[in-house]
Amino acid sequence: MKTLRYIFVFSLLLSIKTYASGEVPDTLMAVDSPSKVIITESSQGTRIIVTDNKSGTEESYLVEYTPGAKVSTSRKSSVSIFNIPGLDCMNRKEKCGCIGNGWSVGADGLCIGLNQAHDQTGGGGLQWSKSFEISWLSCLNIGYSFSRSHIYLGLGFDWRNYKATADRRWLVVSESGGVEWGEAPEGANVRYSRLKVFSLQMPLLYEWSIPKSKLQLKLGPILNFNTYSSLKGIYDDSFGNRCECFTKNFERNPTTLDFFGSIAYRNSLGIYVRYSPMKVLKESSPINFTPFTVGIGFLI
User: Fold this and answer.
1) Nearest in space to 26 (alpha carbons), one of 35, 18, 34
2) Between 14 and which of 25, 105, 124, 190 could a Cys-Cys bridge form, CB atoms 3.0 to 4.6 Å apart?
3) pLDDT confidence of 71, banded at 50, 70, 90?
4) What CA–CA distance (Å, rounded) separates 273 from 139?
5) How far apart are CA 84 and CA 269, in angstroms?
6) pLDDT for residue 72
7) % of the chain exceeding 90 in pLDDT
8) How far, in Å, are 3, 59, 94, 207, 223 from residue 260 at the CA level?
């Protein structure tokens, strides 16, 4: 790549001189193993000095300006503030196993998984195959890279759904303000009953690029601020009419902590697990559980 850059610089300078003088250029210099190029500019012209990596000798050439020539130079630089892992991995060494030191601002992708209501109290009934999670792991994060590692703190969103469809299960609010199994309306044909929790999450994750591979491993805690929850039940009454029961008047655990782990290929596609040792609802709730999620991550 270095040799290509040098050829490009030489070709550009040669084309400038050829355009100005109308002469057909010849070979200016030949360096087999260039290690360093120094370009300086003065009123006389632009001088190029190339150092040979093997011999240590220097080759020099001066592109002279014609008398009265007007020469202008410009310098341009750009900084990528936001980068989405996976999309630009081909151009970023740090995402392909060679991370450099420094601070960065970025984002993580989408996680979709199945939720298990682990250690259910109240006789069980919430089904893993019908319960799912959608999470934006971090819509914004600030991190630091060193060696093959990257650690960051982010801000994201999580939406979890716990569902029951079997045995006429019906979630209702208990007298203590928790959640319990109750009876559906008389003559009703229960379609499903579900519990939903929405969270504002703050992941603190450590990422490590596995040597001699294009795999990345992530581990760390996620702090959840559970800002919203609701119960909803859908049933058909005795006349065949579709009906809905909905409430938000029950107590949830406002803050919980999850532990997250994932392995991904080039920060594009991976699998993840997520577990919390903390209960979703208040301790007084007749039905309670700890969430466990397994799923697929995109751009993580």
Assistant:
1) 18
2) 25
3) low
4) 19
5) 13
6) 66
7) 58
8) 44, 56, 22, 11, 10
Query: Where do we find the tokens 């450099």?
Result: 100
Q: What are phi and psi of 210, to 5 degrees?
A: -70, 125
Which one, of 133, 127, 144, 86, lies nearest residue 260 by Cα? 133
Strand partners, 159: 134, 198
DSSP H helical ranges for the chain: 2-21
How far is 102 from 152, CA to CA, in rounded Å?
A: 12
| Interval 79-126: pLDDT, tens | 444 444 444 433 343 333 344 589 999 999 999 999 999 999 988 899
Output the DSSP codes for 40-102: EE-SSEEEEEEEETTT--EEEEEEEPPTT----------------TTTTGGG-GGGGT-PPSE
Structure-block tokens of residue 84: 């989405």
Higher pLDDT among residues 229 and 94, named by residue: 229
Query: Between the CA of residue 13 and those of 18, 144, 213, what are the distances in Å?
Result: 9, 40, 41
pTM: 0.67
Please say whether the beta carbons of 197 and 282 come within 8 A: no
Query: In 3-state terms, the chain is what percent helix, strand and coil (to 5)?
Result: 10, 50, 40
Of 274, 133, 284, the residue nearest 199 (C-alpha): 133
Q: What is the mean pLDDT of the chain?
A: 83
